[in-house]
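re the bet — no i am not wrong, look at it urself. input seq straight from the record:
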Amino acid sequence: MKHIESFSKLIFEYNTGPIPPPFCNKYKIVVSKDDTDNYQIDLGIIYYDREGLTEEEIVEEGFFLNDDYNWKGKFPDAWGLEIEKKLKNSNWRKKKSPREGGSEFKIKIFHDRQSEVLHPADSRVWEIFIHEIIQVIYEISKKEAPLKISFSSGSSAGEKLNIDYTFSFAERAVLIDSSQNGKKSLPRLPTGQAGRQAGMDWEEGQKLLKYIFSFDYLPENCFDKITKKQGSYISPGDGFWYELAANENAKEEAIDRIDRLIETLKGYG
């Protein structure tokens, strides 16, 4: 095992391995610093083995006919520092573990005119982190807007609470807008920003995102528009709404998890 203390350039490479198209893809990310110590990044994503699929089969899985993407430019300092921090706090080895699956993640590090290829001891953690970096690039390049998750809760008394959570990966910030019975509250700005009621910091927002997406949101249970019925509902960024309620045969643990999510989301209203 070894740690990475410094670098002049990094090349991250990932391949999903033996999963079926249109999901299989590979990407390459180059991170470097310019003469003024600004972070620069170069992303290339390629989806492959789609030749045998029809247009309908690709679109049905939520993809476009061409999902390949390339972009390069200045990268936010906060994320550049986060990459350096994660490199230092991770363990690396020169060979891929034989216990790992078919996917492959590796990094080529350049330092003092030398280079070496390394694999993370915990590849899953790095795969998640690199997908966050890709999301940052999508936001900077305007390919995608920041993730917006909406929550709505109505009581038997007719009271209505609506909350929008906007997660900006590029700014590492969470903006919260809420309204009670149609009356809007002042937006909650990210923690540390002056002027208005404080919201949540990025680390707290990441924990909330992880909890939100630990649930399954099934297509057969979705609504095109928010219902006026009593209950709690969430729109997790896909344009549809889902009721936050356990099914009839749910165990007490599952019911408690949903109740905790509802109370957490309400807490920022």
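see?? The first strand starts at residue 9 and ends at 15. told u. also The helical segments are 55-60, 77-89, 123-140, 202-212, 252-266. so pay up
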